[in-house]
Each structure stands twice: as C-alpha cells, then as structure tokens.
Amino acid sequence: MLSLILSASRDFDVAIHAYVLMSNHFHLLATPNAATGLSMFMQSLGRSYVRYFNDRYQRTGTLWQGRYRATVIDSERYLFTCMAYIDLNPVRAGLASVPGEYFWSSYQHNIGHRVDPIVSEHPLFWALGNTPFAREAAYKEIVSLGVVREEQAAITKATLKGWVLGSDGLSLIGKDLPRRGLPLPRGRPRKIQSGPT
User: Fold this and answer.
1) Nearest to residue 106, comparing CAs of 17, 4, 1?
2) Of 50, 95, 104, 154, which cross-links 63 as Cys (Cβ 3.0–4.6 Å)?
3) What does the alpha-carbon distance between residue 83 and residue 20 come to, in Å, rounded to a whole number?
C-alpha cells in the first residue's frame, strides 16, 4: 500500500503531508496540485490495491465500501490538528500507547526518526522552526497535546459529510462546490409573515 501511495502521489502530483494505515481504513492529509489530482490519485490507488489484494488472497470483487470521503480544510486553522488526528489514530484504536510505536504512519517522519519518501512537508510545517530539529520538536509537542473531542468530532463530521472545515472565509469555497459544502442552519426556516405591517 505504501509503495502504491508513493507512486500515485508522484503520478498525479498530490503532496501527502500525513497518513496512517489502519487494518480496515486509512487516512491521508493531502494537497493536490490540479483540480482532478486527488480523485485521479484515489482512483488509481484503489484500483491498484484491489488488484494486488485480490491476487494475493485469491479473491474477486470489490474491497472498498463506496467512494472515498474527503473535505477541504482551512490549513491555517486545521493543518496541525488534522495531522495530529491522523498520527494519533492508532493510539485511539488501542494499537499503540504512543504514536511513535506505530510504524504505518507519517509520525516518525514528522518528528525526524525516519525519512519517509511519501511525506511532503506543508509550508506551514516549515514555518514551525528554522531547523529540522526545531520543526520536529515543535510537531512532537503539538501531537503530545492531543486533539480535543470537539475537534475530533468536527474533523470526522466534516469528512463524512464532505463539508468544508474551517473559518467563515472558507464558506465561499463551500458555495462553489458541486454539492453542499457547508451544513444548513439549524432549525426550521423562518416563516415569512404576510399581511399588513
């Protein structure tokens, strides 16, 4: 799977900033450099991995449950929260006591313990410090603080619903999506009063 992610990210010019492979799903934080880059990346990755998996385990048919889920995020507000959410996934699932124990993620790369060719550092990651050591220490501290439940819920909900995750400034992006990118206001629409005023 890792080699397929690397190959597809290069083929479709998609920068992967964080990832984790779990037993029944995976998470990616990515920046495509073309409008169709992410969908082409995911299509290629899905087809290649299903073919490999079916050949390896002598089976046929689909492997994934439906289409992948994605959301647009406000990088200034949510980049590091999403990276920490991804790198802490094995801890939340009980597969590791700390994120560094889990091999199948970007965490060890982002804290400087391993060079991972899949990972492309986001410009905001570079802004964490003037040296690799400073950036890695800063990121390790961010992850050690964890992700509060409200932010976990917001990330999960936005991803599952396909909503934009971020500031009100991103509401403009949500309006340009081919589907609803933002949740509707809560409650019933207000009745318009007719008659004399």
Assistant:
1) 17
2) 50
3) 10
pLDDT, residue 66, reads: 73
Q: What is the pLDDT of residue 106?
A: 97
Residue 125 in contact with residue 135, Cβ under 8 Å? yes
CA–CA distance from 94 to each of 89, 98, 129, 172 (Å)? 9, 10, 32, 39
What pLDDT is recorded for position 175? 53
Q: Which amino acid is at 64?
A: W
Name the burial class of residue 80, with classes exposed (0-12), middle (13-18) and buried (19+) by CB atoms within 10 angstroms of its CB. Answer: buried
Q: Are 32 and 148 in contact (CB under 8 A)?
A: no
Nearest-Å Rg of the Cα atoms of the chain is 19
Strands of the chain (E only): list them. Answer: 14-21, 26-32
| Residues in the chain where the model's pLDDT stays below 70 | 168-197
Q: Which amino acid is at 128?
A: L
Copy the structure tokens of residue 171.
């509401």
What is the secondary structure of 34-61 as a DSSP string?
A: STTHHHHHHHHHHHHHHHHHHHHTT--S
Q: Which phi and psi angles does 122 have, rounded to 5°?
A: -70, 150
The enclosing H or E element of 120 equals none
Is 8 within 8 Å of 14 (Cβ atoms)? yes
